[in-house]
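Form 7-S
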Amino acid sequence: MTVAQTFTPDSALLAELKRIELRTRRTVSSDFAGRYRSAFRGRGLILSDLREYQPGDDVRDIHWKATARTNRVFVKTYEEDRQLNIIVAIDISRSTLFGGLKTKHSHALDFAALMTILAASNNDCIGLCLFAGQVEEYYPPRQRRGWANRILYSLLSQKELPATTDIAKAAQYISRHQKRPAIIFFISDFYSKPFKEEFKALGYKHDLICVNLKSELEVNPPAAGLVEFTDAETGERYMIDTSSKKVAKELRQAHARHLLNLQNICKEAKAELITIRDNPIRPLQELMLKRTRRFHR
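Output:
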């Protein structure tokens, strides 16, 4: 596992990094950025100023040193700690290579790039966790010059994706290393060993958002007769009759069970759940609108 390695991009990746950043920044309009600020809020309060006591003020806010020094009663005032800690945790196992013209892995990178640019544009701290069977790379949330580009570069630098997925290990790792409250986007297709208890522990400490990667080909494969599939994580090959109505029904039922299980896990972990099938913009907009409405009830 690598933690924040030296940032030394080669020319090809640097060019791709520039293209992704330009494309993402065109997406992040002022309206979109405003929705981000309304939807994702800091959890804490920081001391803002002192003022003289007024009837009705909480006596617990009295600043005793200032009161003793001036012989006048002063109270502390606070403001929201607006700066956020955001972690984008991405499943980079081989199962995410499934898809059509764009794979689930590509959609995950698009979503991660979008969140990285949004966080950096709002002076928030952004971090990254790349995981498969174990945590492959981890960048703790930081807010400093060049940090967002490091994260974007790391997203593009994965040459060979690991075979297996263990979400529980990734959740445990983040729980151990991220002490301050954070907003954590867990991006995966969630085909993994059991992880319910680890998610519950993570959701207790942090604001957890699950981003479910889904390909339409998984749920509704085209009727193309016998097609050979290869399990990306085990290498096992098998034939599926995609023209069979029975097979199509079984596939839909299997995906429905998988989704129901994920929904139950998210409910117990007090996590939100969104699904990405193609462009990540609309699901993220819907999430931000939902959170903004909840905050303004």
